[in-house]
Amino acid sequence: MLMLCLDICLANGAEIYAPSTFVVNVTGSIIGLTWFPTRFLANFRRLRRARRFSEFVSVYVNHHYQALHIASDGGRICGPMSIVKNEKSRVTSDHVIMLKTGEYVFDDFLSMGLVEYLDANEENDALMALYESNIVPGTTHLEIEIEPLTILGVVAGLIPYPHHNQSPRNTYQCAMHIWVNRQLGLSHITSSIPMVKTETIELIGWDKFPAGQNATVAASLDRAYGRCQVLRKFSTIIRKYPNGTFDRLADALVDEHGNAEGLAGLVEQVYPGDIYINKQTPKNAADNSLTGQGAAPYKTTHLTYKFPIPGYIDKMMITGAWDALLIKALIRRTYTGRRVFAVSLSTKKTYPSTIGELLQLNTWFDSACTVLILWPDTIMNPHGFPSRMMVRKMIEFLAGKAGVLSGKLQYGTAFAGSKVEDMSRILIIIENDFSYSGKPGKDMLANGLTGEPLEA
Q1: What value does the mean pLDDT take over residues 288-311?
Q2: Nearest CA-CA partner of 173 in 159, 157, 153, 193
Q3: CATH code (residue 307)
Q4: Which end of the chain is more exposed for a tag (fewer CB within 10 A), N or C?
Q5: Domain hosting residue 93, numbered range
Q6: Beta bridge partners of 311
Q7: Residues 344-353 pLDDT 10s
């Protein structure tokens, strides 16, 4: 090691700024120079595996800044990796058996050079494989994951199929899991084993905590909110003009539909062409001559509802000073399109997810149900899937429903778990008796109030 590193105090300017020089840093302090970073790394890791210094000391190269960093400070998260030799993992099945029988402990694997700890920086600088079958012949793989699910932490490991999720969604769900940890025993009094669990859930015994319940979810455009609801703001000013004239709000009128026009009231429904602010402006508002002074006839400058879908007055605000009034209207437009349902059973809900509408007991029979008499607990807006890229949730729904109908718990472990093809095959076989239009696997839903079939 000393032969590959020159003391920084003994180096001159030409050596320090040479194009092939790499600066050696130990916990942020420059100690020397090296011209052989690859050999330095190989010898350093060889000594670490021989336990010549702590297994938690990491080393990595930053080629952009031509620096070699050795980190020994505390607070770094280090994970164990299996060492690769001759394109094979050094940890064999015999070692695992001896570990289970108690002949070996994990520290023995470290002293035998079978596994080593890497921090986040060294992982970025190492060539790793998820499985031994992923090792490409001729490449210089250094490590292999002991188990791919250990890439994630304990909290992230609770999420089914996290590798099919947009990364910020996993971050949000981790925050929700942490919130639930603080509320255990307070917000939930019953416990459900999740229909779609992960190996992490079993390892930490999370399925034995009262942390949530399974829920039947229907993806529907008929009763959901969220993307189906659009809020639009409109405003106008009632002002006084230099010639002494001023705008005014006309008296309320009644149109042919019997709806009151003028300054619409809260929660009032407006249709296309309805007037919700009946404003009038004097015709000589822009006339500042002597002949333009005084009162004049008014013309209508009202605000009308111009959208094809009916809306509701959500808010109406009036504010301003002595010479002008500002009127703002907030109109809510709700899309009520064709009913499209997709009923699935989701896993344990350990966080307050964004759902459309929570159905109470007295409204269950007004919602859709399957021929198996499954009423949805929640109705979710299907627009939430593409906008948030939640493929994970769709796979979880599929696995949950297959698990319910087959009577088996399914797994959504990261980088593994139950496959979509297998879950689809289960649904096609089990639901074949309930299919319609000659399409196996299609669920048959019925309106709980009228009994009419619904497209699903």
Answers
A1: 79
A2: 159
A3: 2.40.50.150
A4: N
A5: 79-146
A6: 270, 333
A7: 444 444 333 3
